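Suppose a classmate hands you a notebook page containing two proteins, each written out with its sequence and a corresponding row of structure tokens. How would you begin to make sense of it? This section walks through that situation. The first entry is reproduced here exactly as it would appear on such a page.
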Amino acid sequence: MTVFSLFFPKIVKKSITDITPGDLERLGVRGLLLDVDNTLTKPHSQELEPRIKQWLADMNAAGIELTIVSNGFPRRVRPFALKVGLRCIAFACKPSPIGFIRGARRIKLPRKQCAAVGDQTFTDILGARLAGVKSIQVMPMVQEPQWTLRLKRRIERTVLARYEKHRQKKGY
């Protein structure tokens, strides 16, 4: 195990809609702790794309428990969660594990049966790992304009390249 492996998700998908009930079954996951910005919707948006709305309905139909765990402020996250029909934990302080622990409790599942879904290695994936929750990384919906976030994305690409090399070496 390398220091990088703390940042490795269980799986990587291009989009949240690429996650299937079959993927979750293989991971032993019955509940998802969902990030908002750049995962469920574009940053600062209150709108849900139809394909993501359908994905949420499909997950519900498959019996997957869902809740939002976001670092966003309540004034941003709560109206969005209400609009999409999910409960939320706002200002989750990721990568601290507390938001993920609260999210697992909220959906009444053991953490080992939960997976966090998010677009950021250093908040979503690291926080999930620290909480003992599986993680699924998705690619961001849009590129952020801030130079600090662009720099972080470059570092994330390095981590994901190491993850891919590790995944291929392990044969999964």
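The notebook's second entry, a different protein, reads as follows.
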Amino acid sequence: MSHPEPNHCLLLAFVAMSAWLPAQTPETPAPEAPAAKPAEPPAQDAAPHFLVRRYPRDKDVGVAIVGSKTLTLGELIDHIDSKHFPGFREAMPRPEIQRMLQSDLIAPWVRQFADLQALRQSLGQQPVDEKKLTEAQSVDLKAKFKTWLDTYTASRKESGRPTELTQKLVNTLLADFQLRNGLACEVQGFLDYLEPGDYQRGELQAFFNANARAFGGQVKVAHILVQHRDGGTGILLADEGRARANERLAEIRARLRPDGSNFEEVAAQWSDDTRTAHEGGVLGGLHRFDDRMPATLCRAAWNLRDGEISDVVETQYGWHIVKRLDFNQQVYILFTDDAIPSIKIIMRRARQEALLFEARKTANVQLLL
């Protein structure tokens, strides 16, 4: 089995189109490819509790505002069609493809599409080497697909299924992977292009000295969650649901004491995170860059002092109010030659995160779906 080269991805997506699309129909499901999580259908004659967009009916409806530009659903579909899945726009009227706009795919696509525009805007008049940018994005796509394919092959082995995959199947899996994850790879590739990670030893040591607690440390936090997005798909709630969420958030903020002494009590009564509410909203320990949690949440937690409560933090799950409980240095790391590779990874990730968050802030990104 061979892994396709990244510069062949669009061609392979086109080749796989005829194989992939029929495989997604309810009559002939495709167990080889990961399925989108569909939204629960509303009861007959009942209005859906989250925003529903259809194509082409809503192609001119905004899905995000970035700076002075409103990004539309049609522009998002066109981008996916041209960059990641040729034929996607033409296939959109098919019910099984239309349902993607009410699945757990659409909200991440909107966020990532907005991030791309925000990063572009952050450069102003600074020229972009489009060839190098495309190369960086292709490298990220290839690496992530290889990791996913290795995991997929391992799962087949564990279940006793053949691990030798035909090239046709690999191509089909690649097409599906790029449709679902291509925008995320585009964003990461853009960040890799902007922050390539070529650091001198002195730069690494200065970063390590300034951020020593992030290496081997954890902050313990609690949170109160108010969901203004659908819990299953991440799509924004309809107007009535968002209004209730705003009222709930205002009530929570009014009930919280300035010193946070009743945080656990308010979390138990008001948090929408039912898994942690009964424990006062405690999430546990978070590393500075913790892939288990949204970067926005980790960033906010680490910027607090012990006992301090954050302003409202928005993630793909909803609005959070975070309380930092304490800090624990689990492992002590010294600046040595052996540690430099890990320090370089963290330094690059920190700088890329700063670039993205600054671009979002400067562009005042607003997600409308």
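A careful reader of the second entry would note: The two ends are 40 Å apart (CA to CA).
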